[in-house]
Design goal:
Blueprint (H helix, E strand, L loop, with lengths): L1 H62 L8 E6 L4 E13 L2 E13 L2 E8 L6 E6 L5 E3 L4 H4 L1 E4 L2 E4 L8 E9 L8 E9 L12 E6 L5 E4 L5 E4 L9 E8 L7 E6 L2 E6 L13 E5 L2 E3 L3 E3 L3 E10 L5 H10 L5 H4 L4 E5 L16 E3 L2 E4 L1
Antiparallel strand pairs: 1-2, 2-3, 3-4, 5-20, 5-23, 6-17, 6-22, 7-8, 9-14, 9-20, 10-11, 10-17, 11-12, 12-13, 14-15, 15-16, 18-19, 20-21
């Protein structure tokens, strides 16, 4: 009897011991599993944090516009991490300078590092960049035959058709006042300077920017100039349009628009466009003085220049502004369009008239 109970005790003891061993093995396995899970979760958390840091670096670059951020290494320190943004430049210009076309952003924390690399494709939208020097200008004199006017029985008309000589000019500008070397920079000029004495008295039209104030100014003859007292900010794009209804030399009305809104009017007294034979010249980015001397050179970007033989109405001008620089004027506003230069890596005329411009010095640049 005693022997049987002893055997039962041994059996119970062995069973209890084996149970403890199994439990300890299970607990050990579970503990290791939990440790592995926690470690994996920590790695996931670290990976996510470092990824978002690197993504934030791309966002920083985007806010500053990828193509325009400084090349080299830019570092941003945080409490628990570091963002490093490296820009690499190409020879393709952006706003007149080398274009940053590769961005590598690295997010780093104690337990993780992630990188994101972004490469910009080639620009499809270009503008012209003028550095403010006398060598940067565009000759658009090919339009002279289409824009030549005369005074017939007290009415200004076009020579080739006898219709009333209304016209409109539209363009986008991004001025750089610091590099304008004189008191103002001329954007477009139709001038007659064959005789030095007539150079300022037979202006068809000159539109420019005052360096000190940023105001638009329009000149006709030298005694007739109008300033429009709204400053155009530097390094920002602005849409400018000017229209003229030329009923007669003394009663014509010129109207200036800025960013789709009426800016003011002027009286273009006794100004019209003469013939090329009489010395009329047309240029962008400079004024022409006696002896074909370039002066008052514009600095900044110029884009989407268009000229019509009609006075655009407010709705049409607002369309030009709202649709922006990628708007195809030749397709959508072709009625009475004389010439359209979008300067998308070319000085060609997008209208059906083929009035190609000649670009000198100014460079094509993405924006």
């Amino acid at each position: 009897m005693y022997s049987k109970k002893s055997q039962e005790g041994v059996f119970i003891g062995l069973f209890a011991l084996s149970t403890l061993i199994v439990i300890s093995l299970v607990v050990g396995f579970a503990s290791n599993r939990v440790t592995d899970l926690l470690s994996g979760q920590g790695q996931v958390t670290a990976g996510k944090q470092s990824y978002w840091l690197s993504f934030s670096g791309i966002e920083i670059a985007a806010i500053n516009r990828f193509a325009g951020i400084a090349a080299g290494t830019n570092t941003y320190s945080l409490n628990n991490g570091l963002i490093t943004v490296i820009g690499e430049t190409s020879a393709d210009p952006f706003n007149g300078a080398n274009r940053t076309n590769v961005i590598t952003s690295t997010g780093s924390i104690a337990d993780g590092v992630r990188k994101i690399k972004y490469t910009l494709g080639s620009s499809t939208e270009y503008a012209l960049f003028f550095d403010g020097g006398a060598g940067d200008f565009v000759d658009i004199g090919t339009i002279n035959s289409k824009m030549e006017m005369e005074v017939d029985e007290g009415v200004i008309t076009y020579v080739d058709g006898g219709t009333q000589a209304d016209f409109s000019i539209s363009f986008w500008i991004k001025p750089d006042y610091n590099n304008m070397n004189e008191d103002y920079g001329v954007i477009i000029a139709a001038n007659n300077c064959t005789d030095a004495g007539d150079c300022n008295n037979e202006r068809g039209i000159i539109i420019g920017l005052l360096k000190a104030s940023g105001f638009l100014r329009i000149w006709h003859p030298s005694s007739n100039e109008t300033d429009f007292a709204t400053a155009l900010s530097a390094d920002s794009w602005h849409h400018v349009a000017y229209t003229r209804s030329a009923a007669n030399p003394n009663l014509g009305v010129g109207t200036m628009y800025l960013n789709g809104a009426l800016l003011g009017t002027d009286n273009p007294d006794n100004s019209w466009f003469r013939s090329a034979a009489s010395g009329e010249t047309w240029f962008l980015g400079t004024e022409i003085d006696a002896g074909n001397t370039k002066s008052e050179n514009y600095a900044g970007c110029l884009d989407e220049v268009a000229i019509w033989r009609k006075a655009l109405d407010l709705a049409e001008i607002q369309t030009l502004y709202i649709q922006g620089q990628s708007f195809d004027i030749a397709t959508h506003m072709s009625t009475n369009l004389v010439a359209y230069w979008d300067f998308d890596n070319s000085g060609n005329d997008g209208s059906s008239n083929g009035f190609a411009s000649t670009v000198s010095g100014a460079i094509y640049t993405g924006y």
